[in-house]
Amino acid sequence: MDRIKVIEVKEDVLANNDRAAQALRERLHDQGTMLINLMSSPGSGKTTLLSATLDALSDELAIGVMEADVDSDVDAYTVQSHGARAVQLHTGGMCHLDAAMTEQGLRELGTSGLDLVFLENVGNLICPAEFDTGAARKVMILSAPEGHDKPLKYPLMFEVSDLVIVSKMDVAQYFDFSLEELEKNVRLRNPHATILPVSAKTGEGMDAWYEWLRREVRQWRA
Amino acid sequence: MDRIKVIEVKEDVLANNDRAAQALRERLHDQGTMLINLMSSPGSGKTTLLSATLDALSDELAIGVMEADVDSDVDAYTVQSHGARAVQLHTGGMCHLDAAMTEQGLRELGTSGLDLVFLENVGNLICPAEFDTGAARKVMILSAPEGHDKPLKYPLMFEVSDLVIVSKMDVAQYFDFSLEELEKNVRLRNPHATILPVSAKTGEGMDAWYEWLRREVRQWRA
Question: Which residues contact A188 (CB under 8 A, 6 or more apart)?
């Protein structure tokens, strides 16, 4: 087979917002609020997972949600109906949130008294991985229908994530999807990430996700 | 229910590359090569659709493929094995291609004698919609598992597309997916786009896609 030509067309448009992110993270740590940056492709089931999580944990943790989208506010209404304090962030066409945008959102949300805030980032496997938002933990969701090859094609997202949730496991059988292959591909990029297969629909694996959240909140506040 | 706060965090980072794109489009028109900008989320089945298309049409059309990814070159090898002249474009973390990057790719591919070139854009529903690459037609793929609400959340992608291919229709029944709802949501943003439900796996709808391609190539060269 002919060797494929690979052409680098790199351009550098990434602003350095690391200092702002670090200051925000320290401030949230001091007040005992854990911010989770939740990232995924469009349609991976972020909002469905969050809704189930709110139903399960709202009695024990005070939870806020910032929904980021280029447009619409349907997701914020959904999570609000599950009992979360919620705001909608519009990015105006931007494909990610940076630390300044996150801070602006947190100010509007009001973090006082919150144990846990989810930032539901823009549906995208590229840009959100590149910007530190000031979150304590990065969690990504890969839905089984997207395929187990995704760590090869979106390596940075898998590199930066503390937890990889594999969603829609109830339908994995209808796709050419292998959890074992996925785990191998994740490990190529990230030896440490926890990998949790779940189905928000059947409840499979959800208890492990709730346990992960409880433990991380405890450790963050310790 | 409380009214959700909506905060605009718009930033303008989009360069104007419209002139370069228009010049490229005219040059391709003069030489009788139709460039198609193929856009979608990660894991929507772009490469599978392209492979089937190459198998079906390579005898009647000379087809080239540019695979754009932030990393990896697995897709370029796949389409090459289906008989296409292929190059891999690495965007170095960028979430889209602009006209200059596309032109660079075309130069490396070599368009002489090609009837049709597919640019398989980076898997992303946001950035690629914002940049004119110089393509004659914009085609987007939405896979049924992603959900029929996506035109509400990624409106620009649906606004700019000439054709919306709905892929993985063979598994649509396992998801909360309604083709009728999708069509309604697309129409809110785009009254003209053709909508084609397909399954590259079962072959459902693929003939309509091939007919669309044949007709558009004929019209482009007329």
Answer: A151, A152
